[in-house]
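Feature request, filed as a ticket because there's no other form

It would be nice if the structure record came with a short human-readable summary line next to the tokens. Right now we just get the raw output. Example of a typical job, pasted below so the devs can see what we mean:
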Amino acid sequence: MSAALQRVQGLLRAARRPFYVLRDPHLLRRYARRAWTEYRRGGIGAVLRLVRSARRRVFAPLTYSDWIAFAEADLQEHVSGLQSWLDASPDTPLISILMPVYNTRREWLLEAIGSVRAQTYPHWELCIVDDASTEPYIQDVLREQAREESRIRVKFRERNGHISCATNDAFELASGDWVALLDHDDVLRPHALAEVAREILIHPETEIIYSDEDKIDQSGRRCDPYFKPDFSLELFRSQNYLNHLSVHRSVNIRRVGGWRLGYEGSQDYDLALRILELIDDRHIRHIPKVLYHWRAAPGSTALNADEKNYAVVAGRRALQEHVERQGLPATVEYAPGTPFYRVHLAVPEPEPRVSIIIPTRDNGRLLKRCIDSIHERTQYSNYEIVVVDNGSREAETLAYLAELSSRRNTRVLRLDIPFNYSRLNNLAVAQCEGTILALVNDDIEVISPVWLGEMVSWAAQAEVGCVGAKLFYEDGRIQHAGVITGLGGVAGHSHKYFDRDAPGYFYRLKVVQNVSAVTGACLVVRKDVYQQVGGLEEENLSIAFNDVDLCLKIRAAGYRNVWTPYAELYHLESVSRGTENNPEKVRRFRMEVDYMKAKWDLNPDPYYSPNLTLNREDFSFAP
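Raw output as currently delivered:
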């Protein structure tokens, strides 16, 4: 009996997904005993029904508190080893922490200062400027802290000049080669500066460092972590995700003239944008660890981004000026449904010729739906459609293909060869007129009229490679919002199955961003870039992952791949190709998986986070 119970408990545990945790071991044992009775009554089917029920009751989703317990279980050992390494390192950097203060609650101010004084890394100075606070205790607290700790420098302004002015005054007190920014009511992790110093010593070419962050609510509970990607230029031009903790070289701050007055609320964003224009963004380092607690207090943007609308307005102005200084043909708009931004690129004039390549076989009705939607709903005018017929036999499809052949700006290429998606597209590209290619599946249907203009405007940028669209299932759920490498083994779609209007992880479904790859179901790229990397891989990736491989080749060649939410289309995924459900297809798919794993370092994806799961597409915490 005990062996049977153990087997049932094992079955229940196997039903637990890796992003779930055991909540009640006693309840697990009760379900195991009950399963024995259910088996005798109704067989294995009854047991499986019980397992599904038990999973919802016995196990619960991994919470942030669970993640902290798992991820930081060995934190003290890590911090001790890190500090020993730093103690043995020569030329450890002095880090100046700037903290403007204005009428901060006494306990929060003391906690902020205390978090600096508690740093395991000793080579710091805290530069505090009180911006003429009206609360009488502020000066007493700051003077006392400066008396107790010689590394604390304090200045008291006679008149309130707001945060940019106060931060500049704090910077004048700084003598370190590196500057970290700390709000007057926030908290640093005890090892924050040690992690920063390690990054500086290992990567001496570094110009900017930023870390992950979370929030602390009014009860002091940690919540709402932002596990960030490595540097993504397009995402940064959509939102200031570097934010907390950010560390700059002092010399770069001096080069741009410090913090500008009139940009209060987004003064750090404005500073970073101006510094970005002077440096190589490959020298921006991301520490994928939570090193900063942002206090979610009333009146703080940590609680609600709408709390400081003036900050959003100032950020848009700073970004617009950055775009103009960079010579981008764009205007900055507010991204709909977010407190963030859209860099809206102009469609090049004259419009470059686009070749829309659509492989098909015996899918006349589906193909017609696709092409009709392109003709009827696409504002962009300078395009040709190249249908690649891979040996259609059905009379209905052949009749429709014959009709297409007579249409203006539409061609049908007949390629009676064994199905090889990569070869079909490569052969078609060789015959295309356009300087820009749009790879489109025959199960695509246009939603937004601006889709092609939006994608072309990005693909036309010299540093941009592949451009992907926001694709939906027919029921309106998200099918594709960029590709994350390593997800599910090789690659998976970001935010798959999310609701149509969902904002996504920190609004990632609403803003333009860089991604490692995009799906070939709707992919736009310049023809010269496509040919530069040899097009799609024919020999080893005839069906699966050829689009991911193409994007990774293009990224390796120095281009940025971009996903935009402003190009919306339906994708009836795999309607035309079917599923991998016979031994030959399974064998071929496994070979393609092995090829991708051998060729590419798929994990971690620089535009994802090692703190997020590779088992789901929903940005859940990694166990």
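Something like this underneath would help us a lot:
The two ends are 33 Å apart (CA to CA).
Residues 11-19 have pLDDT under 50 and may be disordered.
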